[in-house]
Amino acid sequence: MLTTNELKRYDRQIIIKGFGKEGQEKLKRARVVIAGSGGLGSPSSIYLAAAGVGTIRIVDHGSVELSNLNRQVLYWDEDIGRKKVVSAIGKLKRLNPEIEIEAMEETITEANVSRLVAGFDLVVDAMDNLPTRYLLNKAAIDSNIPFFHGAVYGFEGRAITIIPGKTACLECVYHGAIIPQEKFPVIGVAPAVIGCLQATEVIKYIVGIGELLTDRLLIYDGLTLKFTELKVKKDPNCKHCGHTGG
Amino acid sequence: MSVKINIPSYMKSSTDGNKVVEVNGSTVGECLNHLVKQFPRIKKQLFSKEGNLFENITISINGESAYPEQLAKPVKDDDELKIVLLIGGG
């Protein structure tokens, strides 16, 4: 049941055709994990908090550095040196005090990944490295939790939505490819675009509206301002999802 | 076979700024080899020293992933290939 204040706060989205109070109540009941609170996690958490997702868990082990501030818009100059999750929670609670936001200051590992996503409805992949993305992808599939992937490099971005047992997963698309860990180039507007697309997909999935970005990797090129797609298929031999149906 | 290869922005400096390059070949591998023949500088962005396509590069044929055995996939006249970099930053 939405409060009077909530009805007012979310009025502009409630009046979207197909959204309604019912959609808003679904958002209020939803529990979303955002894995990573950097360039992608900043916009996705801001817009999911603003949209009224009832419970958001943010997982990140890092502290704010000056070099983060060109893209990680949850953090400001005054936050340098603070733990990201602490700073993020402070900002998001000020943005929307009517939702629950919890912080997990942990490095995501094979040992803890299942625990970190347990009991949640969706996982947003806002990590900055492929090995951790694969851990999350597998944990999401094993726990039957929809997984919303995004990645950036320079002016480019990628996004895909993964529904366990039904659609291609991250491993089906990336095949375990590993990119040497290096300082990658990125302009803040690239994760802004992709993080907002991830949040869009999360909201659509929860509300049950529109068509999801499944079985197609969205390729965003900010330099030409073009969106293209790579059609992908669920791989029956995939080591992450091959054992599931679909 | 005459095939078009779409070059991603970050590789255009290796193709003299060309966004699209016409190549000949009956497989993806032959088409990429013809691309390299025209623009040798792109070779090190596509292939390892051992001559394998980098694992973070996927080729699409008319918008569909050519994986697995991408280089052996047949192509036909007027097909469009695209070089897609798989990325992991966030």
Quick structural summary:
The complex is a heterodimer of chains A (246) and B (90). Chain A is α/β, with parallel strands linked by helices.
Q: Structural class of the secondary elements of chain A?
A: alpha/beta
Strand content of chain A: 15-25%
Query: According to CATH, what is the topology of chain A?
Result: Rossmann fold
Rg on CA atoms of chain B, Å? 12 Å
CATH architecture of chain B: Roll
Oligomer kind: heterodimer
Number of folding domains of chain A? 1
Low-confidence stretches of chain B: none
Provide the CATH superfamily of chain B: Beta-grasp domain
The ordered string of helix (H) and strand (E) elements of chain A is HHHEHEHEHEHEEHHEE
Given this structure, which CATH class of chain A is correct? Answer: Alpha Beta
Order of the strands making up the biggest sheet of chain B: 2-1-5-3-4
In total, the number of strands of chain B is: 5
CATH class division of chain B: Alpha Beta
Structure overview:
The complex is a heterodimer of chains A (246) and B (90). Chain A has helices at residues 4-9, 11-14, 20-29, 41-51, 84-95, 113-117, 130-142, 170-174, 189-207, and strands at residues 31-35, 55-59, 100-104, 122-125, 147-153, 156-162, 216-221, 226-231. By secondary structure, chain A is an alpha/beta fold. An 8-stranded mixed beta sheet of chain A has the order 3-2-1-4-5-6-7-8, with helices on both faces. With 90 residues, chain B is of the alpha+beta class. Chain B has one domain (2-85): Ubiquitin-like (UB roll), CATH 3.10.20.30. A 5-stranded mixed beta sheet of chain B has the order 2-1-5-3-4, with helices on one face. The chains are: A alpha/beta (246), B alpha+beta (90). Chain A binds chain B through residues 36, 38-41, 125-130, 133, 150-158, 173-179, 184, 186, 191, 217, 219, 221, 223-224, 228-233, and chain B through 8-10, 19, 55-56, 58, 60, 63-65, 67-68, 82, 84-90.
